[in-house]
DNA sequence: TTGAAAGCGCTAACAG
DNA sequence: CTGTTAGCGCTTTCAA
């Protein structure tokens, strides 16, 4: 006889008054015992999919579970089933509203499916990302969502694809923001694509149409995909409308970076009527503060536009012209891409939002 | 003989070229086999804490693990060890910058300790929170951080404490934002307290000193702790300085709510020189937009102040007077409260930040 | 239908 | 120091 590995759950197992710690959580075993059924039966009524348990037993088990406050141990279920209910989300910085909204979308989807989302912060550091990916693999997540645009995930022939391949090998699905993420052997991950290039191009055209002829770009380091796409798209559109990109300043995705870049530009000199295009609203907000500090005016003097349409963009004065991205929806799509076998990539609507920070120029030039 | 439960890992187990799915991840067993050592030894060098493996074996194991791309299965480790490496974070809305910053702080701490953070969204719905708590228990997290201020978690003698008690019973630690969260049997959870009342009181005093005499408050439903504390504190300070709270409008924590409340107030009439205190910056921003839309001016006409000092508050024009909270640090503290046995509650610095949205009144009244 | 028993991948006594 | 061998809590054949 061996089922008595521990003391029988007969009495104290469910006693809520036992010490804060030390006591243990009720197990399936406890429930089965209390209900007078086998482990298998208890498992079937509580967690098994196909129902085929006599009503009488089912009731007793449910009652017992209720009485004991039983909750299945997710880790144990995961080891036994060979798959865990987690979706791992990788973002650069969860405090950044851009990622915050994406995360909200992912969480919404996961919640609908009873999955848990785990979140990791890369801080845009490739090494860090690498380590995280490795550790994440240990969770054997059903899906991995890469929302953290790293410099060259796709182009680096190095380690990353290998790491991602490992996920797919055991059946985990990798979804990336932005097209073309390799996952080894020439295969690419499913991807949620926000048409950064297209949106920026349209923005550039609109700005040119407004009469702007000279623009300064503020981006991240060259090679950072998102930034490159936006800057490139903007230049294309702006130039097609007769404008010219005067120069491009480099920094990162933080507000301070935008302020620093702008300060630098102002030092070198910025003519009235110039337009500043920052590749993200957060950076644009930083640029705006720098412009103000330099005693210049936003709008007629120096116009500014950004990208993302984070909530704050509508609140500043003058309100920021930008490109609206359906970030929450994008996060949700990423989630669907993981759970739907027949998922097909849907285009996400992007929209240019012209506001007061880029007033129309009365006279050209 | 039974160790050959599966086909020996001798050949294809590690073949990176095998199909995307279908193949399985390398197990400790595979590593041990390849290294020619026992499972126990492999476990010791790879995951065991106390080192006591001969250099030769250690190397062989490490080499094998490397070659196979082995990563320990977290779920299996969790079941075997009886504790899982997860910290569960409960927030109302991850897209809200308030929670985003807290989450960043928690993630920072977790990362330092190799723990994974799991995030759940309550949407401030008590039932939802209840369900989530229940499901979360299944993860047997080492810690549970309640950052989602629910209406009356603490005061409701109902279900919640019971649910939380379950966590503590098996050794999980519960940390709450805000004091006095019960976890059953009269015990309270460790708490990270942001002195909402004190900060608001100081703000109220400062506003009174600036010459304001009449204020309108915008809060969440009565009973919501955070909101009550802030509103109450502000009233105390403001009145101590000779001001008077004219009325309090109710809504929730969203921007639109602030706009709606303010619109209502404006309909009823708001005299020039009135100060509006919104219990959160996000709500204040909504109020500001409503004031503008009504054709009134922020500052000299209707002054506005908020609470939190989210990044956007410094970017709006006029910049918003508010109370700065060290949210990232608070999140980090919450994490420490979980992992440090001898954690002691540290006071978090709160600071009133007076900006242009509340210019000094030249003449009293 | 139900239950016995063999796993899932890993850890942790306990002997050698 | 190393290997054997029970577990951890749950799922899932496979007979009965």
From TrEMBL, chains A, B:
SMART domains: HTH_LACI. CDD domains: HTH_LacI, PBP1_LacI_sugar_binding-like. Residues 26-81 form the HTH lacI-type domain. It comes from the Bacteria. Pfam families: LacI (PF00356), Peripla_BP_3 (PF13377). InterPro entries: HTH_LacI (IPR000843), LacI/GalR-like_sensor (IPR046335), Lambda_DNA-bd_dom_sf (IPR010982), Peripla_BP_I (IPR028082). Residues 9-24 have a biased composition (Low complexity). Residues 1-24 are annotated as: Disordered. GO terms for molecular function: DNA-binding transcription factor activity; transcription cis-regulatory region binding. Keywords: DNA-binding, Transcription, Transcription regulation. PANTHER family: HTH-TYPE TRANSCRIPTIONAL REGULATOR GALS, LACI-RELATED TRANSCRIPTIONAL REPRESSOR. This is HTH-type transcriptional regulator DegA. It comes from Microbacterium azadirachtae. The gene is degA_2.
């Amino acid at each position: 006889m061996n089922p008595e590995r521990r003391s029988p759950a007969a009495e104290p197992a469910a006693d809520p008054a036992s010490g804060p710690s030390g006591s243990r959580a009720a197990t399936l075993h406890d429930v089965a015992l209390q209900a007078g059924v086998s482990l298998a039966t208890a498992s079937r009524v509580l967690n098994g999919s196909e129902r085929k348990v006599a009503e009488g037993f089912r009731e007793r088990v449910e009652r017992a579970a209720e009485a004991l406050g039983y909750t299945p141990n997710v880790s144990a279920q995961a080891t036994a089933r060979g798959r865990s209910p987690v979706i791992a989300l990788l973002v650069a910085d969860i405090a950044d509203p851009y990622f915050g909204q994406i995360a909200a979308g992912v969480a919404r989807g996961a919640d609908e499916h009873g999955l848990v989302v785990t979140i990791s912060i890369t801080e845009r550091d490739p090494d860090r990302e690498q380590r995280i990916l490795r550790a994440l693999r240990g969770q054997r997540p059903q899906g991995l969502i890469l929302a953290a645009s790293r410099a060259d995930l796709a182009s680096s022939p190095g380690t990353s694809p290998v790491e991602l391949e490992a996920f797919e090998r055991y059946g985990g699905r990798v979804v990336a923001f932005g097209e073309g993420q390799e996952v080894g052997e020439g295969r690419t991950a499913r991807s949620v694509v926000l048409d950064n290039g297209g949106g920026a191009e349209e923005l550039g055209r609109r700005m040119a149409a407004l009469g702007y002829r000279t623009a300064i770009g503020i981006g991240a380091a060259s090679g950072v995909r998102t930034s490159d796409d936006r800057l490139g798209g903007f230049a294309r559109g702006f130039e097609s409308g007769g404008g010219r990109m005067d120069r491009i300043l480099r920094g990162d995705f933080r507000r301070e970076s935008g302020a620093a870049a702008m300060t630098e530009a102002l030092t070198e000199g910025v003519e009235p009527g110039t337009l500043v295009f920052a590749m993200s609203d957060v950076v644009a907000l930083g640029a705006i503060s720098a412009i103000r500090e330099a005693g210049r005016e936003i709008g007629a003097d120096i116009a500014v536009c950004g990208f993302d349409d984070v909530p704050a963009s509508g609140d500043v004065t003058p309100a920021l012209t930008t490109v609206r991205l359906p970030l929450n929806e994008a996060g949700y799509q990423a989630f669907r891409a993981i759970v739907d076998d027949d998922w097909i990539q849907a285009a996400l609507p992007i929209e240019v939002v012209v506001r007061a920070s880029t007033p129309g120029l009365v006279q050209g030039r």
